[in-house]
Amino acid sequence: MNIVMCKEPVEKLKALSLVDILKKNIINEIERMKSAKNKNELRQIYIKYVYRNYIKVRYKLELYEDELFSYVAQPDEINVRNISPKIVRVDGNRKLRLLFRYLTFYWSFPVSEGVGRRIKFIIFDEYNNKVIGLIGLRDPVIGLKARDKWIGWNLKEKKKYLWHVMDAGVLGAIPPYSQLLGGKLISSILISKEIRKEIERRYGLRHGFSVVLYTTITVYGKSSMLSRLKYWHFIGYTTGKTTVHIDFDLLKQLLISNNDPEVKKYKFGDGPNWKLRLARKASKILGFDITDVGIRRGIYAAPLANNFREALRGIEKPNYYDFSITDISEYVKERYMIPRSKRIKLYPPLRVSTIMKMVRSYES
Fold first, then answer.
1. Of the residues 77, 110, 117, 210, which has the maximum number of CB atoms within 10 A of its CB?
2. pTM attached to this predicted model
3. For position 353, what pLDDT does the model report?
């Protein structure tokens, strides 16, 4: 028997099987997302992807969980009036990096590292040395029409001054501070002069100045965390496309089986739209846009200067706000957190491993 004759049919069968599996999985996820009626149903979908990320690092996190969880406050360790935020830049410190990663699993949406410039902060409460929340900044999305229109950019201006925008991919408080509207505190601290100066120390200046505008894209449309915050502005929605539901290992296998000449070169960090480019290539094979799920996310922006538009168009140097973390925190505590503390009872936070076990049980 000439076994060489069987090679081509077997290879085609493998490719066909892979395409069928991929189509079925992606169509199911897209239909599930499109049928979600509210934010809670979307959270139940997204938490599955959080768990998928968790199992990749589970053993390391669970090995050190006792120490990591010790930075999560219990209700009786918090005194709202004495909350005193302190920013700590993560950088290359192994312990801080692990702590930051651990705490992102309190989010109901999978956190991505991003590409290009990346700077992370853990916000501690000096009163008890527990963590209030996290800030993770990265290079902004290149194609964001609502942002560009809001700024008033033309293409030439955007290419020249986009460097002065950073996106907050991680922004918020962890429990139990989140129960006290601590997310508003973290979001307000982001516009402080201390954060801006840390970015300057890390990345220097361009055109004689540093970052002028922060953006963030919220998962569930308009954000209760950012609403009524004076310096955060809702500027529009995304187009309804996402890649969060896509298994990229499977997509790479599909493109390899289709003899894509570049797929083996793809890796995280290979340009700001790596996932989107990979998905577009796979979409051509599958015959439909696998990123289009119709879930529009909210786009918010926070200027750091009162003439940010002029600065981002090269007309003027930025006239930066001079808000300190101390001034910001006192205002947010009095305006939001102290009144909130009088209305609610704080619940003890669970360990991340416990939350993930609950997610696994729910999915099974």
1. 210
2. 0.88
3. 96
